[in-house]
Write a structure and sequence with these properties.
Blueprint: H1 11-33, H2 42-125, H3 147-168, H4 174-184, H5 187-232, H6 256-269
Length: 274
C-alpha cells in the first residue's frame, strides 16, 4: 500500500511566508532591544514596545484565523477518513476478535473441563470431597499455560490440603479448627483462631466465677448479720420510728474470716459499731 496517500500540501507554503516574515521581525526586535533606556528616551522606547505588541497581536489574530480554517478542513477530512478508513478497519478488527475469542473460549473450556475431572479424581483419592472442590484450587487457566503444569499445581495443592487435615486430626479442638480451615485453607491461622477463642472463653468464665464467688460471700455475710440481729435484738414494745437511732449489743461467735466479712458488710451499709 502507498504510504503517501494522505498528504498535507499547503503547509510548505505557510512555512515559506513565515520564514520571510521572520527576517523582518528579527530586524525590528534587534533594533528595539538595542535602544538605550533613560529619562530622555523612555517615552520613545515605550512607543516602540507598543508598536511591537500591536504587530504581534495582529499576527496572533491572523494565526487564529488560519488555525480555524485549517481545523475546519481537518474536521471535514476526519469525517471522510472515518467513513472510508478507520470504521472499516475497526469493524474488521471487532469481527475477527469475536471469532478468535469464541475459538479460544471453547479451547479454554475444554481445558478447564479436563482439569476439573482430574482434580475431582485426585480429591476423591484423598477423601477430601466434603472439604475441597475444584473451585477452591487457585488456578489461572490460560491457553499459554501447559496442561502438565496446571495438573501439577492441582496435585500439589490437594496433597498439601491432605497433610493439613492429618495435622488437624491430632489437635484437641479438631472439629472447630476444621470448620475454620474450610474458610481459608490456612492451618496455622485456623488453629490460632480457635485457640485464641477458647482462651478468651476461659478468661470470661473465670471472671464470671469470681463475680459469683464475691456475690456469694456478700450474701453469706448479710445472712450472718441478719441471723445475729434477729437472735440478739429485742425490739421495744413502743413504736419506733424508722429513722430513730438504736443501740444494740451482741456477740458473734464464728471464724475470723466471717467476722471480717461482717465488719465489711457493716461498713458498706454505713452502720456504726465499736
Amino acid at each position: 500500500m502507498n504510504n503517501e496517500l494522505i498528504t498535507l500540501e499547503q503547509l510548505p507554503i505557510i512555512k515559506y511566508h513565515l520564514e520571510q516574515l521572520s527576517v523582518e521581525i528579527k530586524d525590528k526586535v534587534a533594533r528595539a532591544t538595542s535602544l538605550v533606556v533613560n529619562d530622555d528616551t523612555v517615552k520613545d522606547v515605550k512607543q516602540v514596545r507598543a508598536e511591537l505588541n500591536k504587530e504581534f497581536n495582529e499576527l496572533e489574530t491572523q494565526r487564529k484565523q488560519v488555525k480555524s480554517a485549517i481545523m475546519s478542513k481537518y474536521d471535514e477530512f476526519e469525517e471522510i477518513y472515518k467513513e472510508n478508513v478507520s470504521e472499516l478497519y475497526k469493524q474488521a478488527d471487532a469481527e475477527l476478535k469475536e471469532k478468535i475469542d469464541n475459538v479460544e473460549n471453547q479451547l479454554k473450556q475444554e481445558k478447564e473441563d479436563e482439569l476439573r475431572e482430574f482434580a475431582n479424581q485426585y480429591i476423591e483419592t484423598y477423601s477430601l470431597g466434603d472439604i475441597l472442590s475444584f473451585e477452591d484450587i487457585p488456578l489461572n487457566i490460560t491457553l499459554s499455560v501447559s496442561m502438565k503444569s496446571l495438573k501439577e499445581q492441582i496435585k500439589t495443592y490437594v496433597e498439601d490440603i491432605s497433610k493439613d487435615i492429618d495435622l488437624i486430626n491430632l489437635e484437641e479442638y479438631k472439629e472447630e479448627i476444621l470448620l475454620e480451615y474450610k474458610k481459608t485453607f490456612d492451618f496455622a491461622k485456623s488453629k490460632l483462631d480457635v485457640i485464641t477463642r477458647h482462651k478468651q472463653l476461659e478468661e470470661l468464665q473465670q471472671k464470671q466465677k469470681e463475680i459469683i464467688s464475691k456475690f456469694d460471700e456478700e450474701l453469706k455475710a448479710s445472712k450472718i448479720v441478719e441471723e445475729i440481729t434477729v437472735g440478739e435484738i429485742t425490739a421495744p414494745k413502743e413504736i419506733i420510728e424508722d429513722n430513730e437511732l438504736l443501740t444494740a449489743t451482741f456477740t458473734i461467735t464464728t471464724t475470723k474470716e466471717n467476722i471480717i466479712k461482717v465488719r465489711e458488710f457493716l461498713k458498706k451499709e454505713g452502720i456504726e459499731y465499736d
